[in-house]
Amino acid sequence: MRPLLLAAALCALAGCGGSDTRVNEDRPPSPINITAAIDDDKVLVTPKRFGAGPVVLIVSNQSSEEQEVTFETNELAGEQGGIQVKSRPIGPSSTGTVQVTPRPGTYRIRVGTSAIKPAQVEVGAARGTAQDELLLP
Predict the structure, then answer these.
(1) Are 126 and 51 in contact (CB under 8 A)?
(2) 43 near 36, Cβ under 8 Å?
(3) What is the distance between the alpha carbons of residues 88 and 43, in angstroms, rounded to a whole number?
């Protein structure tokens, strides 16, 4: 009987947690999809303005050549530095993606050749938290 009481007392003590309070931080904004199309003359993007936070750029290569897409800071970003994220090569009539989390500012979406005019996007203030959204991963 005594070993049983001792085991129960040890289990009860093990269940006691510390007195530290846990800070419950909000989730980041949900990712949004931005679409881009590359033709033989230019890069087209929609929408051209959106809020800061996670972005998935879905690119359709409608040009006649394989393309590598670059999402980059359009201007020098001062102390925070700029970003430059590249896709894998995207074949003609294929699609690819670029995942990026831009801060507010102006960005350029370009390919490796200067013959194709780049697109420009404006990233505004941060989008709201996804804290109260259901069915998120």
Answers:
(1) yes
(2) yes
(3) 16
